[in-house]
Amino acid sequence: MNHSARIARLLVASAALAFPALLLLGALRLVLSHQFLRYEYTRPGFPADPYGLTTEDRIALGYYAIDYLLNGEEIEFLSSLILSPEQCLSAYKNEGACPMFSGAALGHMEDVKYITNLAFAFGLASAIAACATVILARRSAAYRRAILRGLHLGSMLTLAVLMSLAVIAAATWDRAFDAFHDLFFTAGTWRFPFSDTLIRLYPERLFVDAAIAIIALVALPCLLVLLLHARKSPK
After folding, report:
1. What confidence tier does 1 reach under pLDDT thresholds 50, 70, 90?
2. Of all residues in the chain, what percent carry a pLDDT higher than 70?
3. Which residues touch 148 (CB under 8 Å, ≥6 apart)?
4. Which of 32, 103, 126, 142 would suit a FRET pair with 13, their CA atoms being 20 to 30 Å apart?
5. Cα torsion for 124, 128, 134, 138, to the nearest 10°?
6. 151 touches 16 (CB < 8 A)
7. What's the per-residue H, E or C state across the chain?
8. CB neighbour list of residue 144: distance below 8 Å, 6 or more residues apart
């Protein structure tokens, strides 16, 4: 195999891996936003907090965890937050003050931030690989064809994986939800009572909707790539 052929195969692999990775991390970033959280809190049918947080309370308080995941602050960013007496449950009062998050919730948020940082670091590496791929593509029409093959392959594989995950999640959401958390977090560190502020702000329905949004945001560009490839392919 000559040098150009090896580069072409490398470009196929790079495009096939970097494209879905960038789509996934882009979708994750859109979901980890004030706009998505506000949409969820205000849309019809989103479950109300059975312990009394209003929609306005959730909007005001819910942004903090998202900001923590995306900024460079330590856990004190969250541990210093205090709920008002009207928002607080008596079980969480501490000498007159009511911490917004319990100690267990703070520990979980540290774990979530660590995973989030790893994910976005991988996204940065994928972006660098994509830039290098584009630069190489300018040198040869064969390289550009290799990248298109990689995009096509990556799109097909991504859609196959998404369809499999969607079927599994739809059939056994609770087990899939538990398996996902057990994969990334130590057992017993991510389960909280419904009265915990973390669950009051981020109920399970939010994660269901986030998963649907991520699947859609990743699947649609992949479908577009397959459609464009089919239109350009010889009859």
Report:
1. low
2. 95
3. 15, 229
4. 32
5. 160
6. yes
7. CCHHHHHHHHHHHHHHHHHHHHHHHHHHHHHCCHHHHHHHHHCCCCCCCCCCCCHHHHHHHHHHHHHHHHCCCCCHHHHCCECCCCCCCHHHCECCECECCCHHHHHHHHHHHHHHHHHHHHHHHHHHHHHHHHHHHCCCHHHHHHHHHHHHHHHHHHHHHHHHHHHHHHHCHHHHHHHHHHHHCCCCCCCCCCCCHHHHHCCHHHHHHHHHHHHHHHHHHHHHHHHHHHHHCCC
8. 137
Distance CA 100, CA 75 (A): 13
Residue the block writes with tokens 């594989």 = 157
Is residue 66 within 8 A of residue 33, CB to CB? The reply is: yes
pTM comes to: 0.86
Residue type for position 13:
A
Tokens of 32: 């980890």
User: Which residue type does 64 have?
Assistant: Y
Which range (73-77, 172-176, 204-208) has the least confidence? 172-176
pLDDT tens per residue, range 107-133:
999 999 999 999 999 888 888 888 888
Q: Are 34 and 66 in contact (CB under 8 A)?
A: yes
What confidence score (pLDDT) does residue 34 get? 96
Helices 204-232, 173-184: inter-axial angle, 10-degree rounding: 90
Contact 12, 153 (CB under 8 A): yes
